[in-house]
Amino acid sequence: QKEVEQDPGPLSVPEGAIVSLNCTYSNSAFQYFMWYRQYSRKGPELLMYTYSSGNKEDGRFTAQVDKSSKYISLFIRDSQPSDSATYLCAMSDIGATNKLIFGTGTLLAVQP
Amino acid sequence: DGGITQSPKYLFRKEGQNVTLSCEQNLNHDAMYWYRQDPGQGLRLIYYSQIVNDFQKGDIAEGYSVSREKKESFPLTVTSAQKNPTAFYLCASSLRPDAGTQYFGPGTRLLVL
C-alpha angle with apex A57: A56 to A60, nearest 5 degrees? Predict the structure, then answer.
């Protein structure tokens, strides 16, 4: 079993829809949770960063962490065609090495 | 403009050849990282460096080498011992070794001729 599981998609939604992207993990020591957006043939761009449990909102994006269920989510409201990309979750228990464990990414397509 | 630059954007390697990928950052970050990305496998850590003149192997270091002679530079050499080098290579940095967030460069795509 992988430490981090993420549905690869593809996920296709109409413009304006609410998108829900999810990751599950097995390591209860993970404390830091990140979502990256990656456009085709580009480097990942940090979208959201959350420490421990709870919600964090930034514009149309909301990140949720449920440590009891070992489950994290990214919600995108009013999705736009420009949101079409691969979304990667990443997490870490920090310490000295800051080793991030990545999900395999979910490919999202927002149809105009 | 602060950020991470990688060069070249595309790189071609012949059999038996060593090639070096460049990574430079002007963010004054202490830690730097190299990842390899393959379809369906996510990002895998090759090497990381927490401080100048020090670096550690990641999960898939075999066939790769690095150096960290300057804070802003962390080049990766793909040696001839790496039998399956075709991949997208990503360099990242973080402010401190224990900082949660890592920031990525634009990547280098390595192809084998």
Answer: 150
In Å, how far is B81's CA from the nearest CA of chain A?
Answer: 25
Token code pair at residue B89: 């290579």
Which pLDDT score, from 0 to 100, does residue B39 have? 85
Extract the tokens encoding A15: 């413009």
Of A44, A49, A99, the CB nearest to B104: A44
Instruction: Classify B41 in phi/psi space as left (phi over 0), alpha (psi -120 to 50) or beta.
Output: alpha
**Long-range contacts at A57-66 (CB < 8 A, ≥ 24 apart):** A61/A35, A63/A33, A63/A35, A65/A33
The pLDDT of residue B86: 94
- Mean pLDDT in order along chain A per 10 residues (112 residues): 88 97 94 94 94 91 95 97 96 76 95 96
- A36 with B31: Cβ contact below 8 A: no
CB proximity A42 to B under 8 Å: yes
DSSP SS3 for A65: strand
CA-CA distance, A68 to B38, in Å (whole number)? Answer: 31
**Can you give the pLDDT at residue B97?**
77
Q: Which residues of chain B are under the pLDDT cut of 70?
A: 1-2, 99
pLDDT of residue A35: 97
CA B29 to CA B96: how far, in whole Å? 6
Alpha carbon of B44: minimum distance to chain A alpha carbons (Å):
8
The residue in chain B having the minimum alpha-carbon distance to the alpha carbon of residue A51 is: B100
